Amino acid sequence: MGNAKKTLPGLEKLPRHVAVIMDGNGRWAKKNKLKVALGHRRGVETLRAIIRESSDLGIEALTLYAFSTENWKRSPEEVGALMDLLLEFFTSEIDELDREQVRILILGDVDAMPPRQRYALYNAMARTKSNTGLKLNIAINYGGRAEIALAAKRMAKDVQSGLLCADDIDEQTYSRYLYTCDLPDVDLMIRTSGEMRLSNFLLFQCAYAEFDFPAVLWPDYTLEEYHASLLRFGSRERRFGGR
User: Fold this and answer.
1) Which residues on adjacent β-strands are paired with residue 138?
2) Among 3, 23, 187, 212, the one annotated catalytic
3) Cβ atoms 102, 136 nearer than 8 A
4) Which ranges of the chain does DSSP label H, i.e. alpha helix?
């Protein structure tokens, strides 16, 4: 990461906002006859590389699906390993991310996280809130439908208290009540491992997103694969419902 933005042939037309469902850690571990925790650990290495490359390319926002509200249903061992990795990531990476002017935003119910993880998440947001580089948004304990419901509740309270007129509510007004209120809509949604579904991720924000579903598992998703996803995005004509 650095101040000078990287330029690569063919990558002149970049998305402002990239979202990624980092899928395939468990299958990668199974394929390599390893414990699932080691698959997640290998996935963190990919995560670091994609964050750094996004910053170097000058992409405005990168949103990563790290832990959904449904992931609590996984085995206690896997959930514990994910919580440990989460804490380790923010402990080991926060200095570099802050130095490189990355601004961290957590999407999801942070208050319901275990105490040490909750502190680390709030600390990361507070420490980087004034940074002016890549907007790194990490969805943790997040669900798209829950986000939409929460936004509706907050908006209803403002209508009830007289801060908002119901007749003035439109899509733009509604978007201000979402976790992503300061971000552009998603331009490119990437889901690795070949699965082709959103899994309750950024349902409102992906209304006009382009989708890319590389078959490679997340731990094997290289920078070359990322560049290929960006190139496919750049080759598409986006009409937003027009002709």
Assistant:
1) 64, 106
2) 23
3) yes
4) 25-31, 36-57, 76-99, 115-128, 144-160, 171-175, 223-234
Contacts of 234 (CB under 8 A, 6+ apart): 10, 11, 12, 13, 14
Beta-carbon count within 10 A of 152 CB: 12
| The Cα angle at residue 183 between residues 70 and 9, in degrees rounded to 5 | 100
Among 171, 208, 212, 214, smallest CA distance to 186 is for 208
- Each residue's pLDDT tens digit, 108-141: 999 999 999 999 999 999 999 999 999 999 999 9
- The 10s digit of each residue's pLDDT in 18-50 is 999 999 999 999 999 999 999 999 999 999 999
- Predicted structure pTM score: 0.93
Do residues 179 and 147 touch, judged by C-beta distance below 8 A?
yes
Q: Is 71 one of the annotated active-site residues of the chain?
A: yes
pLDDT over 60 at 2, yes or no? no
The residue type found at 204 is F
Q: What is the pLDDT of residue 113?
A: 96
CB atoms within 10 A of CB 35: 13
Could you confirm whether 200 is annotated as catalytic? no
pLDDT above 90: percentage of residues in the chain: 92
**Which conformational region is residue 199 in: left (phi greater than 0), alpha (psi within -120 to 50 degrees), or beta?**
left
Active-site option among 25, 56, 71, 111? 71
